[in-house]
Design goal:
The protein is α/β, with parallel strands linked by helices. Helix content is 46%, strand content 14%.
């Protein structure tokens, strides 16, 4: 499950890594909060028939909506920048108990508790936790975490027993150089709002006295050259004009 948003390049990398998990038993649920995220996600997912796309208004809503739409026994709630090695998720799911919480490790660390795995918990991305469905439902219902990486939810989850994967299962790509999908600032920021206001003003004017407004605009347009001359005229010029 992926709550899409932010950098489209990171979103592409995350979805590409999920597509590299060759198992029909893995479903890909993508929830976007805007058109840009939805478009980038669909492009990154390509022709993968396991991918389904939905919309939600915020990050917490996206996680809950994605959970309701998912059907698996375990849920992995990823964010743009979470990357999973090829086949890692497939291998990790083999023999995993239905009620087991698994921490995906970037390196081999022994220890079932937070105290024994401090390096892994230093950056508690939610995308590193493979959660039982019931546990994920409880966490997402109790904690409306607005952080895209789900720090609050993962910290709460790590307060209870969990297992650590015996091999690398996650890579953090948030600091990687940006790829070809680079968001650029809008050179015409706010233009759409201004156009909408202008159209609304025109419609309001048309409903009152559009014809009079058209005549007034035409008159002002025709007088513009004369007004410019009048502004530039000196007292002597006006005196000669009066004579």
């Amino acid at each position: 499950m992926l709550a899409a948003g932010g950098d489209p390049g990171r979103l592409r990398v995350t979805l590409s890594s999920v597509r590299d998990q060759p198992s029909p038993g893995i479903e890909i649920v993508v929830v976007s909060s805007d058109d840009a995220g939805d478009e980038a996600a669909r492009a990154a997912a390509g022709d993968d028939t396991r991918a389904r796309f939905f919309r939600a208004g915020s990050v917490p809503q996206a996680r809950l909506h994605g959970l309701r739409r998912s059907r698996g026994r375990h849920v992995l709630i990823a964010a743009p920048g979470d990357v999973y090695p090829a086949r890692a998720l497939v291998d990790l799911l083999v023999g995993l108990d239905d009620d087991a919480t698994l921490l995906l490790a970037p390196e081999i660390v022994d220890g079932p508790t937070l105290e024994e795995a401090p390096r892994l918990a230093a950056t508690p991305y939610l995308g590193r936790l493979l959660l039982p469905r019931a546990r994920a439902s409880t966490l997402l219902t109790e904690i409306a975490d607005p952080d895209p990486d789900g720090f609050l939810i993962s910290l709460r989850a790590l307060q209870e027993p969990f297992d650590v994967a015996a091999f690398t299962g996650h890579r953090d790509a948030r600091s990687d150089p940006r790829g070809p999908f680079v968001p650029r600032p809008d050179p015409y920021a706010g233009l759409a709002d201004r156009v909408a206001r202008d159209r609304a003003s025109t419609e309001a004017l048309a409903g009152r006295d559009h014809a009079r407004a058209v005549r007034a605009r035409a008159a002002l347009t025709g007088l513009r050259p004369f007004l410019a001359v009048a502004e530039a005229a000196t007292d002597a010029d006006w005196a000669r004009l009066v004579e």
